[in-house]
Amino acid sequence: MHAITVRPTDKTDSKGRHRPGPECIEWTEVPTPQPGPGEVLVKVRAAGINRGDLLQRQGLYPPPKGVSDTMGLEVTGTVVALGSDVTWPKGDEVVALLAGGGYAEYVVVPAGQLLPIPEGIDPVTASTLIEVAATVISNMDHVGLAKGETFLVHGGAGGIGQFAIQYAKALGCTVITTCGTVEKQEFCRNLGADIALDYHGDWVAAVKDATEGRGADVILDVMGAKYLGLNVDALATGGRLDIIGMQGGAKGELNIGKLLNKRASITATSLRPRPLDEKAAICQRVREVAWPMYTNGDIKPAPVESFPMTEAGKAHEKLESGAVLGKIALTL
């Protein structure tokens, strides 16, 4: 079969570390994987691109031990072969949550991480849904986001942000988001955000103003270190900061005194390395909670721009440019 590989590069970053760019992505011949016990082989139709893929290409987010080095955390496709102890019907069109391997003609998937395509959603759009939905729902379950609370999500115009805005609104929360342009702020308000703020400004003060000085009950953060202190400032008493990304760095400074005074908590999670049983349970939550919301219109999928799988480098360039309002998919 064919799959995406990343060739070595002499290109280095400011610290002298080798960081392959989009030009290093190649479409090459590799062995076709075979499903083992509890697994299925899926013929890929489309693969969603996530920021984790960009980090993996650069050598900053390696796959878990034993997982394919090929990028790709979510796909849609057709079940074509079964391992032992699997009864999933061959020929079914499915959505799959992956730890890697999606940028390929075929991918092996644990059976518990397969779902049917949501009713009314086309396969290319569906290829961009499960990673976002699984991330947001599992994290909001973890921190106990509840009706009537104030929820702040950073990067509201991105895939995570778009889902999180609509999901929190459907739960009955007041939703605040940050994003970078007037266009993106308006886009987020149209999705249901009550307040959309420019992250270039003093968004902490704006959150306090909007909540009469109280702050946000729950913050979903993709930035990490850069926003650590600011997020604590923006939390309400008893608030919960949930960190799911490190776009703003991995090491930050924390004022423990502020955290103590607010009786607040900080948690951090990652979906990719979780045990298979946990991922299977999260996928079932997505099927029970998110799929009906997509079907009945409570949540609208992010707009999707597609590229042929052979042009994955161009797709990575587009996502890295910051000009994407939604998601990108690779198609076969």
Describe, in plain words, how this protein is organized in 3D.
- The structure is a single chain.
- The chain is of the alpha/beta class.
- It folds into two domains: 2-129 and 272-331, Medium-chain alcohol dehydrogenases, catalytic domain (Quinone Oxidoreductase, Chain A, domain 1, Alpha-Beta Complex), CATH 3.90.180.10; 132-268, Rossmann fold (3-Layer(aba) Sandwich).
- The protein has helices at residues 51-57, 123-126, 130-143, 159-171, 182-191, 203-210, 228-234, 256-262, 276-296, 312-320, and strands spanning 2-6, 25-29, 39-49, 74-82, 93-97, 106-110, 114-116, 150-154, 174-179, 195-198, 216-221, 235-243, 265-268, 304-308, 327-331.
- The strands form three sheets. Strands 3, 4, 5, 6, 7, 14 and 15 form a seven-stranded mixed sheet that branches. A six-stranded parallel sheet has the order 10-9-8-11-12-13, with helices on both faces.
- The radius of gyration is 20 Å and the shape is globular.
- The relative contact order is 0.15.
- Residues 21-330 form the Enoyl reductase (ER) domain.
- It comes from Cutibacterium porci.
